[in-house]
Design a protein that fits this description.
Elements: H1 2-51, E1 57-58, E2 63-71, E3 74-82, E4 89-99, E5 104-115, E6 120-126, E7 135-144
Antiparallel strand pairs: 1-7, 2-3, 3-6, 4-5, 4-7
Length: 145
């Protein structure tokens, strides 16, 4: 009888452990799904904002992203637009933040207005949330208008 009780306890402990581990995995999966949904929403909002620009022309080649740094709890990058045209131009720029493995972390839209002909002008892209680890800012899209 003692052996049966010990076996029953061992089986109960194993079952509880399995349920706990499965629950952790489920919680991690759910958290990952929430994070993925939030990330997709941020990307979609940035895309919508870019689509609001009327009469914009692709100007990705006019814009560069500097290295990322932190400002408080946010990641920032200096973005430079250089206007190759002969009159002032405004720029609307989608900046994507990625981790060291190239995974998408965040996306923001930045406006740099009144860039003089042949001159550079800078603005600061600031992440929507706290980003951890090595991050890189990339120009996903830039429109001159």
């Amino acid at each position: 009888m003692r052996r049966t009780t010990a076996t029953a306890r061992t089986l109960a402990l194993a079952a509880t452990t399995a349920l706990t581990l499965t629950g952790c995995d489920a919680a991690q999966d759910a958290a990952g799904d929430v994070f993925s949904s939030a990330t997709a929403a941020v990307a979609s909002a940035a895309e919508d904002r870019m689509n609001e620009v009327k009469d914009g022309v692709n100007a990705t080649g006019d814009v560069t992203a500097g290295p990322t740094t932190t400002d408080g709890d946010r990641t920032i990058a200096e973005i430079t637009a250089t206007n190759p045209k002969d009159k002032n131009a405004d720029y609307t720029i989608m900046v994507t933040f990625r981790d060291g493995d190239g995974n998408f972390l965040d996306s923001v839209v930045l406006s740099i207005d009144g860039v003089a002909p042949g001159k550079p002008k800078t603005g600061t892209a600031r992440s929507n949330r706290t980003l951890s680890g090595d991050t890189k800012a990339e120009i996903a899209q830039a429109l001159r208008h």
